Amino acid sequence: MLLALLLLSFPTMAQQPASVRSLMSSYGFEDTIARLKTALTTHGLTVFADIDQRAAAAHAGLELRPTRLLLFGNPASGTPIMQANPHAALELPLRVVVWEDNQQLVHLDYQDAVQVLTTYYSVTPELTARLAAVPALLQTALANK
To answer: What is this structure's pTM?
Structure first.
């Protein structure tokens, strides 16, 4: 009973694949998005898309907590991976989802691209080496000043 109540009140306990990592932001929702975009572009990554999933839900007449999906990457890093295994394009560009829970805490979820690409697509560690820096970049963007 207590676990059921916790699951209802704290959605971060929802099931997720083992390759998904979750971070907590020290900032509000919009500030987190801005900091994240700045960190990505400052480090030579391109933000290819910023999808406001809450707005899309509202357009369909539905409600959703603040949720935005960012697609980002660097063709110099991703292209050799896709050359090695065209199926790996399903994982590229990289993505993060920023969402706000019921307590206005902001979360960032991303997939461990290195783990997924090496495990499921047999991409060599040499090709995924540049992607290994992404988790630290995301953590830095969300950390307190």
So the answer is: 0.87
